[in-house]
Amino acid sequence: MLDFVVRVLLRRDLVERLILAGAFDGLHEHTRGLLWRLNETFSKALALRNDRHATGLPGLHIPGSEHTPTAWNIRDFSTWDKLVWEWRITGVTTTCHPFAYLRRTLSTRGIVSCYQAMQQEVGAVVTVAGLNLRPHRPPSKQGGRHLFTTLEDETAVCQAAFYGRSIERCLAAVVLSPVIITRGVVKRVRLGASLEVQEAWPLRIADFIERASPENAETLTAETLEAQLSRARDK
């Protein structure tokens, strides 16, 4: 990464986000260690850049750029923390769906996957959780508006519909929450299945992610890390 910082002139905060998004994971396995000594990396890059200009050395290789400062003595982020940062910065994940980490806890609370819900008989009442994709309120032929959204988890997507009083009860959760839990009745039209929702409420991922291991228990939250990085930039 030091070689990259020498060659590419980017602001420190942009390099931070590249690190957190996993841009250098193929080169450096210790993400938090890179961040911890990023100020040192920038100082070393400036010195190497000045030396290169002073000596006028051509070529692709920059002597001294092979060793990026890394704090190996501190604990790295857990795989969940790395996934959250990648998801937060890029909007996508390259390893797995975030709900794959939540499935065990969701299952113990009676919350089934989208795929399992769509396999149930018509009229079955199920509880499903997922990412809340594109909630919308199209007008109906009888006047007024319906409420629809799509739930996505690691297994499939599920179409969710709200009618009558359930719209009033669930509108705030569906419109405002990026992740929701729904309870409703399975419906089928021809070969398609959907969920007619009766209740919906926001899902706090922090309530379902397992942090029982010592490694996970001591990892930084996104907000804590943001504060630390902000203090480092101000130094």
Describe the SSE topology.
Layout: H1 2-7, H2 12-20, H3 31-36, H4 38-55, H5 79-90, H6 99-108, H7 114-118, E1 125-136, E2 147-152, E3 157-162, H8 165-176, E4 179-189, E5 192-202, H9 214-217, H10 222-234
Parallel strand pairs: 3-5
Antiparallel strand pairs: 1-2, 1-4, 2-3, 4-5
Structural class: alpha+beta
Largest sheet: 5 strands, mixed, barrel
Q: Which parts are unreliable, with pLDDT below 50 for 5 consecutive residues or more?
A: 211-221
Binned, the helix content reads: 40-55%
Overall strand count: 5
Order of helices and strands: HHHHHHHEEEHEEHH
Under the CATH scheme, which class of the largest domain?
Answer: Mainly Beta
Q: Radius of gyration, Cα only, in angstroms?
A: 24 Å
Number of helices: 10
The CATH superfamily of the largest domain appears as Nucleic acid-binding proteins
User: What's the overall average pLDDT, rounded?
Assistant: 85
Shape: elongated
Q: How are strands sequenced across the largest beta sheet?
A: 1-2-3-5-4
- The number of domains: 2
- In the CATH hierarchy, the third-tier topology of the largest domain is known as OB fold (Dihydrolipoamide Acetyltransferase, E2P)
N- and C-termini, Cα separation: 22 Å
- Which architecture of the largest domain does the CATH hierarchy give at level 2? Beta Barrel
Q: What is the beta-strand fraction?
A: 15-25%
